[in-house]
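Homework-ish question, so no full write-ups if that breaks the rules, but can someone show me the predicted structure for this set?
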Amino acid sequence: MAERTLSLHAAEYPIEALEAAARALGPRARVRLRRAGARFSVTLPSAAEGPFLSEALAHVHRLQLMRLHGPLTAPAIAWALEKGFYAQARDPLEEMLDSVGGERRAAVERLLERAREGR
Amino acid sequence: MSAGPHRSRRLGGRVLVVGDAGSWEMLSEAEHARWTAGLAAGDPLWPRLEEKGLLGHCLDFDRLGTQAADASFGWSGPRTHVVVLSRGRLRMGPETARDVADFILSVPGALEVELEGAEAAWASAMFLVEYLHLRAEWGSRRLRVWCRAGPRGLSRPRTEDLARFGVRLRVVWRDPEGPGAPAPSPLARAGAFFVGAATRDPEGWAAAWTEAGLERVRIEPSLDLLRRPDGPRRFAEFYARALAAGAREERADWVLRRVPGPRPPEELAGPPPGTDVLAELAYDPEGRIHTSELALDVPGGLLELGRAGRVSYEELPGREAVQACLAVAQGEHHPQCASCAYKPFCVLPVSANLALQGTAWGRAAESPLCAARMGAFDALFLRFSDVKNVDEEAIK
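A: Not a homework solution, just the prediction itself:
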């Protein structure tokens, strides 16, 4: 399979973008990255050059946008991750009264038994 | 006064203008030119656009913050839970069904449970239905259960089983051809229609749905159709013609409920249907939780979140897949989505990006799902703008 080596300036193609592009190609292509001063040397199958550069450019643009919009989006994501996933409280009646919990457990056990028997 | 930084899109000789929270207005080219040049105070357009916050001086950041909070912080958890009871040779057992139900009920807010593959694991399906019914009653939870079935429907005894617990039937068509009415069922209320390469006659299908008594139908492109070069165009055409023929479509209803208006924040629609984690979770027959139904097909368990009964809902934010889904769901993180007129109404889900483009982020510019959605939204907004008075009852 013919290979091609690209020389890309690190200021235009940061390492995160090149790594993301290489990962996006997955098992379709083996990509070798090497830093040479201010540039990266990227060796990959010729057929993968277009998809690789497309992914890398998309990621460069995405990184710029994320830096720009981070102050807007970060609070919403942080809120969701820190406080958004609270679980529904358990039924207080069941917690307070053993008899209620007991009756309900027995009812569920009967249902399970019926399902195990395939009825 | 300036127009303000709103998104716009040319549609059918007019210009659709959309605010950040989803307020929108269709302008003529001349009106759009006046708007972008700066309206004079006495311009008849002024009150129309001011009411919707589409004037530069209306950029009220407190109001935008409140709308964003209603849309984001008002989120109380995924609403749709797809339980796959059978898949290949796998069947969900009753104990696993109980663990899955307990997990679903630990998610706060109103819940919709959709049972997929129920017929091949009927005893577990009925256990799940009855258990969910009991627990919802005990805990005063708002819960609706849907059972999916093909157009042939379910047998009479099974229909009667489901009817005892208020379960409704969702008729599913995958890659169908010409129109065909589903078997009549008193429980059939909704449909899920996956447009395929051979699907034709949207008007005939719309008539068949009405005849079958379906109150609404979700029209989606099949993944196979999206993988064809002409797939997005064919889907968009089908969608537009079905809407024009009077089909009541679920995403269209959702868009109407997403537009800010005189309604309490809790009635504002949640995240776009099908969005991983934010709108949907799915469960496979072994009780493994996935970020959405589409994620079940993602190889390598990339979007798997653990097993019901062993992982709690509160632990989900610690999962990398959940963090990725939340980051990807922000339109502002995508070069094309950030400036898209339909951004308030659309998310390209991680699971769809992985299925179609092989990466979680995807690339909207080349995404067939983006192209299909754009076509569908174009049809939708053209239709909305042609309907002078949107029936509030229809919105509900």
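Now go work out the reasoning yourself. Hint: Chain B touches chain A through 45 residues (CB under 8 Å).
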